[in-house]
Amino acid sequence: MEEKNNYKKFLVLVIFVLFSCLAISPIVLGNIIPDISISKSVIMISEGPPNNGSLSGNVKDINMNPIEGARVRVSFHDTYEQNYSDENGYYHVTNIPICYCMKNASCYKPCYSSEWVMLAIVENSTHDFILNFSNHPPGEPIIKGPNKIHQVRQKYDSLAPTSYPPGTYDFTFKAIDPDGDDIRFHIDWGDGTIETTEFINSGEDLTISHTIEEIGDITIRAIAEDVYGLFGPDATIDIPILKSKTCSCPDFHYDFNWDDFCNSVSDLAQILQEKINENGGLFKLLSPVFALLISIWMIFCWLR
Questions:
Q1: pLDDT (0 to 100) of residue 113
Q2: What stretches of 76-119 show up as alpha helix (H) in DSSP?
Q3: pTM of the full predicted structure?
Q4: Strand 125-126 relative to strand 53-61, pairing
Q5: At what angle do helices 258-279 and 281-303 cross, to 10 degrees?
Q6: Is the pLDDT of residue 40 over 50?
Q7: Which CATH number fits domain 53-131: 3.40.50.12780, 2.60.40.1120, 3.40.50.720, 1.10.10.10?
């Protein structure tokens, strides 16, 4: 009986403890929740630094002349802000976050050496950039031409003239810019014609056709210019132009041509050889005389 009473007392004690805990828990939770809400509000306020930092200054060359159009970029947190210098060389980069990290500030303009510096940006930070001019002129042009060489010069090199008749010929121009800049050519054709080409890639071949009507030695001159207006050395090529002679013999008129002349002599020699093989004798004896007379006649026509 006594054990049963002890059990009831213990059960009452447990129920009392449970009710006591339930009564105390709202007070405890009420004291904790405000702290959580405050900490959240603090976190929301401090999500990022204020973007009221700025960087300004001037961009000049080594002679302290202002450089216009230079790009100043401030890099931070995998992004950047940038601005370009005006005619006085002044730049102003804004919306830079103020924080403890260092910012990479760089300055760039084509034909100038780039500069960069690590800065701690605050409100109204300043820094001046000094750039050194570093562009290089294109190399001397390579001129090839004319590409349409007289066939007689290939077939009968010992008899061919070293000049060309008036006509249209192809010329190839090429130049290399050490900075890899695009280039164009200014060409003086030597006959009073001056031509400026479109820009092409550095090292690229440019073929141009030109008609030459002048008689005499023609000197073609070319110079390369890069996209920034820098000129390199010029180059020349001499093209001798001679007028084709005309034979005016009785009942025989034609424009003399070295191809026709060489072919005619070759055909005549072949005919004489056939006649010698067929007849021999007197014809064999006289054939050198016939060849000599025909050659003298052809030379006479050429010199007239």
A1: 87
A2: none
A3: 0.49
A4: parallel
A5: 170
A6: no
A7: 2.60.40.1120
